[in-house]
Amino acid sequence: MLIYLRILKESLFFAINALRNNKLRTFLSLLGVTIGIFSIIAILAAVDSLEKEIKGSLSSLDTSTIIIMRFSFAPSDIPQWKREQFPDVSYDEYQHLKRTLPNTVATTYTLNVKPEPITYGGKQVQGVEIGAVTSDYYFIEALQLEEGRFFNEAESNSGAPVTVLGNEVAENLFGTPEAAIGKKVRLYGRRFSVIGVLEKEGNSMFGPSKDGSAFIPVNVTRRIYGDNNKQTFPQIILKPESDVDNAAYIAQVEQNLRLYRGLKPDQVNTFFVNQLKGFTDFIDNITGQMNLFGLIISGFSLLVGGFGIANIMFVSVKERTNLIGIQKSLGAKNKFILLQFLFEAVILSIIGGLVGIFLVWIITLVASQFTGDFQFVLSFTNIIIGISVSGLIGLISGIIPAISASRLDPVEAIRTGM
């Protein structure tokens, strides 16, 4: 054990000596490793941060949640021209599923409508995202209220003029969420009573934040837009019970809706049953491909860095030929010389890798200051990956120079070095 510690100590000394005595050569050689590790860790950190932000934005929704609409979350085998002919899901279909579908915790019908201004007194908030939903949306999204309540089923069915405001909208109109309750705001040229205010959510990169939203009964917007407006993108959202088999439940949903639409056995579904778990799996697939693509590109930088380390080691072997001959004449075994140069190559490579990781860390700190709530994260796992890869590059790059050094004849080595 002591011999290996001695070899490591001497190798560290030689590596530092190489850095000190040949600064420019060493800098240029290590630059490839630094850039390669920087590229790999920067890509991994960026993709991890993106994935964390997206999944954090979806965290309020159960991944078993099912969304029925005429669009698919994932690529489909059905030709686009045929998909464009699919009808929108209807309010009647929503009511039918709500009445007949078992093992369901909540069912809601939503319309995606364009943002609208909301006015109170002399104040106005522009571009408020309108959530046109039924009452069960509260349970599906697990909304958190700071003040008041969400509208109930009776208010939803009748299309009552009530609204639940996002935190930011309430603050801009009334100063505080508490002051909003019971007030009447103007929306769509009508007066709506504010019955609730949501808790502050913060910015989200995956869709608009609920802080800038207002939720109203969907039947209000149905009267305004009509049931055949292709710009509203209706959806039926289902939340199955936790112990239900997802595949069986989806099959039951499809069969139920097929029967309601009168589709024949040989006809394809004229709707898509999308599950959020499938969407998160799709995100995982995309981020995995991004990581792979980035790693391939970064691999070229590491290849250059590997050649740089190999160049340093070949020069180091040549400069220390005389010393190698003396060591071998005094009894140093081939293994000792081999490990000495291998350790030196690994240490040099790790130094380059640590510089690359340090640069990524600095950039993540700076970038996070300019991206608001989106935070770039350099995980401990990525740091370990960076150090491991740089060490592996040093090991691979140094193996041939180390073998050539260990095989030198002591007499010839001493004579060559004189």
Automatic annotation (TrEMBL):
EC number: 3.6.3.-
Protein name stated in the entry: Macrolide export ATP-binding/permease protein MacB
Keywords: ATP-binding, Hydrolase, Nucleotide-binding
EC top class named in words: hydrolase
Lineage summary: Bacteria, Pseudomonadati, Bacteroidota, Flavobacteriia, Flavobacteriales
